[in-house]
Design brief:
The structure holds 2 protein chains of 2 kinds.
Chain A (H helix, E strand, L loop, with lengths): L4 H4 L6 H8 L1 H20 L5 H26 L7 H16 L4 H29 L3 H19 L9 H8 L9 H18 L2 H11 L1 H7 L3 H27 L9 H12 L12 H19 L4 H39 L2
Chain B lengths: L5 E12 L2 E12 L3 E5 L6 H8 L7 E6 L2 E3 L4 H7 L1 E4 L11 H7 L4 H10 L16 H14 L4 E5 L7 H16 L3 E5 L3 H7 L2 E6 L2 E7 L5 H9 L26 E10 L2 E9 L3 E5 L6 H8 L7 E6 L2 E3 L4 H6 L2 E4 L3 H4 L6 H6 L3 H4 E2 L2 E2 L1 H15 L14 H15 L3 E5 L7 H16 L3 E5 L4 H6 L2 E6 L2 E7 L5 H8 L7 H4 L2
Parallel strand pairs in B: 3-8, 3-9, 6-7, 7-8, 13-20, 13-21, 16-19, 19-20
Antiparallel strand pairs in B: 1-2, 1-4, 4-5, 9-10, 11-12, 11-14, 14-15, 17-18, 21-22
Classes of the chains: A mainly alpha, B alpha/beta.
Chain lengths: 344, 502
Amino acid sequence: MSAAAPVSRTPGGPRFGRLLRRNAWTLGTYALFVAVMIFTISIHPDYGPFEVQSLVVGALPLAFAAVAQTCVVLGGGIDLSIGAMMAVANVLAARYMLGHDFQSALLISVAVLVGGTLAGALNGVIALRTKVPDIVVTLAMSFVWGGVALLILPKPGGGAPEQFLELASGNLFTPWVPNGLLLLAGVVALIWVPLRFRGVGLALYAIGSDRTAAFRRGVRIGPTRVFSYALGGFFAACGGLALLMSTGIGSPLAGTIYTLSGVSAIVLGGVSLAGGKGGVTGPIVAAFVLTLIPADLILSGTDPNLGQVIQGGLIVLVVMAGGLAPLLRRRAPRTTDETGVAAA
Amino acid sequence: MTEAGVLLETRGLSKNYGAVVALSSGDLSVQSGEIHALMGANGAGKSTLVKLLTGDVTPNAGVILLDGREVRFPSPASARKAGLASVYQDVSLVPLLTIAQNLRLTGTTMPAINPWLQELELEDVDLTELARDLPTPILHLLDLAQALASLPRVLILDEVTATLPADLSERVFRVARRWRSEGRSVVVISHRMTEVKALCDRATVLRDGLTVGVVDLESSGQEEIVSLMLGSEAASVVVSEGSVSDREPTSKIDRRPAVEVRGLRSGVLQDVSFTLQRGEVLGIVALEGQGQADLFECLSGNRRPAAGEILVEGKARRFRHPHDAIGAGLVLVPADRALALLRQRSVLENIALPMVNRLRNWGLINSGSERRRVRSAIDRLEIDTRAQSRVMRLSGGNQQKVTIARWLATGFMTLLCFDPTRGIDIRTKEQIYKVLRELAASGSAVLLFTSEMPEIQLACDRAIVMYGGRVVAELAAHDATEAALLRAAHGLGRAAPAEAAS
């Protein structure tokens, strides 16, 4: 093998093929969603706008929880307090929106979102300053926020103006596209997309991929990490509000399950728990898949408890299948790399 | 060369990681318009000095002067702004980002980097490729192109050519010469003596974290550098029994081969063959990254070789797992004690750990016989067991002894020691040499890789030298002077051994 071989090698192949390969997992998640959807329609022939609406309303909190966790995990961290922060956002909004009009409800929402961002940033600052692993810090904070949620609203209650609930369950244009879907798309498009293609988004991916290399590239590690937790907090607050929209009341304990189901969604959606790899659309679609499956199982008459087993098994299977592809791909070029270097 | 134009200077720069001193006093003076080499044996502090210069780590003491003014770099970005750019030994491109995104992170614009991509003949590289998917040599060149794009006044190349094929290295040299002709400076770290001689104007030599001299490469030769790297008190470590050359060959043991390695390939390794006899300590000498780590991984069952075979007692063996290698009698003492030991557990438990396979008696651990065997191993190595409860409280030397004691208690045929004396005090080193000699005398075989070349004559019967993944020299102990080993390890032939061995 000639020494110049590494240069002339074109490992990417045609650009389209590479684009396909790099986004293979996300595309796979879409395919899974389509498959589950087809299955749903096959067992539920008169699938209509109402079912679409209840799917969106049901999936919305999980979708936001998944996006929140994605922001943190992409930066190489993890936040176990996402569910608890959602609970706090949920009960705060439910308690103070009760009996107010739509405009004040929106104002309260803004305040809750700002609070969520600050709570997320606090996680980041604590992990950064104390050098305690973030998994410990955020686990501890999850108890703190869990307690705060119970202090604000000891038992399910509160409420929100009808118009506010309409933000998720109503429809502006056609009954096939509920507002919740537009809301989700809008928030992600307004917050995530601009960041993703700016320096700070790049820095987020960089620190998640290789912190030392990122530092040497000139990325400011500390601020970027805090930013990723803050972003996580913001989307967790969105999730809390979505929870209010979907249930109509505040519930101090409803949020907690979203920490772990959010993690399932990002894993299913192709975000690497090691950081630096993945996007937000995969986890969002995965959240819809994870909402559809239990509903389908109930529809098809399966024991709900068995449904849990099936859902867990599915996650393991998908992640296993996904882990296989890069493994096979890596085997092949590595040998050529070595002979290329060895020509020295 | 003008004496006045000192561009970059460091005085008494030092860095320690806990108790380990990486650099105790680094002095460097680089003039503008010169290519300056930084030389020294493994662990002399070269890479640490570079990391301090570029803000990758912050010094414990000492100053950096640029144009005579003191500067501090809290991060590589700030050093780059001040005009110091480095290409590190380990690639520092973010693997999961594309090359173009990596360039954006440093704020490198395409017009700024394009001429350098052309200069380094990298126009064909697809910048939308993920850094992870490109071969290492290309990444090094891309890293260099990016460093050049910031037009640094001092360009630092930390063993960049170590991973590059010859024709790619030539491109790097071309750029370095161009940099010099434009009145800028280049600092080069390289183990390849011929390369340094051809390229550089002066060399600063480090030894044990200290700057020991500056050599003008035009007027003086390799021998001066080698002697500076060796130091005057090279023979400071003396084993009480005297060196190997006086020792009688152990004739009692029949010299059957314990391990034969034939045509082994894996990672950096290119066709390595040698035989390790029972009753001998075979030394391996190599500079950083010449394949010694791959060799030990294959022999200890941590990795499956790509080609070649390992024969134990004449029978070809395939190790799929360290358990297989241990079963065949090959046991490893790694350099990193933390890898080998359960730091939170007691000395006794650590030593007894591999024995659970043997002492198990219907699932119960036979603590009586365990204790006896452990006790005898502890006595033999004179392990200080006052810090009984947890191995992590022991000194580095004692931790290493625990690792060896574990295998003494378990029993083995071949001991693989990978730099066992790294960061250990002299007295403990002597004890370890003594144990290795005793093991060989009792019929075991010992393979010893060491980064400290004087150890070869103190502990080994024979030494092989690896360079570029191959065995390039084999020396009997009395020929294996530090100078001879150093020459061979730098890929130099055995020319003029007489003067080198002075």
